[in-house]
Design brief:
Length: about 350
Amino acid sequence: MNRLSVVFTALKQVTVIKESQPEPGPGQVLVQTQISAISPGTEMLIYRGEFPDDLPIDESISSLAGRFGYPMRYGYSAVGQVVALGAEVEPEWLGKRVFSFQPHASSFLATPDELFPLPADIEPQDAIFLPNMETAINLCMDGAPLLGENVVVFGQGIVGLLTAALLGRYPLQSLVSLDCYPLRREASLEAGAHASLDADAPDALKRLQRLQPGGADLAFELSGSPPALDQAITATGYAGRLVLGSWYGRKQVTLNLGGRFHRSRIRLVSSQVSSIAPELSGRWNKQRRFELAWEMLRRVQPQRWITHRLPASDAAQAYRLLDQAPGETIQVILEYPG
């Protein structure tokens, strides 16, 4: 049996290779992938060569062992069906629809503890958003929005949109988002933002200040753009909280901290989904957070934000699209024959 695998081979070069698929060993299953989702933030850093050389790819995901560097297989959102079992695997796994954190490939081997069976009422096109929904939940937990607060979200890529969709369920005074692309601003309003501003407009911060005169109680920087962090600091009010969820890779950040920030008592919070904040870990673990993510997928139904579906054989085209025409995309998925 052969499989297709997506490989980042060099700067802005993606190759789809055909290789043999090993049979499942003891304790393993073989999953035939149906769809996988491209993470436009992290995967664009890899595509553009902006990843750091001194970090492991992801120490919390066994399928992403190793360090950044070409050639590299990446991806962490695959949905498929179990088609073969190795010895010592319970027979009820056969035929199950599952989610797994796996690089883009038409099939993969995994142990049952690396699989998340899809609930019967969740479609694969919604399940593919599970990692980013978990991230959005983690961001909200780290930000801890309060009744009646003014909240602003910088960046309305898929993580920003999902975060806005969750925040829209809180009884906030105002929820404002900023993004430079009209398509994403329209989606943000649909997700629950009260207003969505053009982040590139010269008067963007002045317009935001009119909507939130005292500054934001809580801000999120999720754009992946280093200049947005300085904007977010400016937008955050005295003693406000700023949750930084972007990963900039090797991109450098220049901040103006010599003005009001020095006396502002703004609290900067680093948020990353691979762990749970210590103050919450007494009650929350990853299993409980995943259960909440499934429920939020039921409520939000994010498949409406899939803008492009391409066959995996056209993966290079998918990455060129994200690189050259980001304003036309929100979520791009790869589909596999089967």
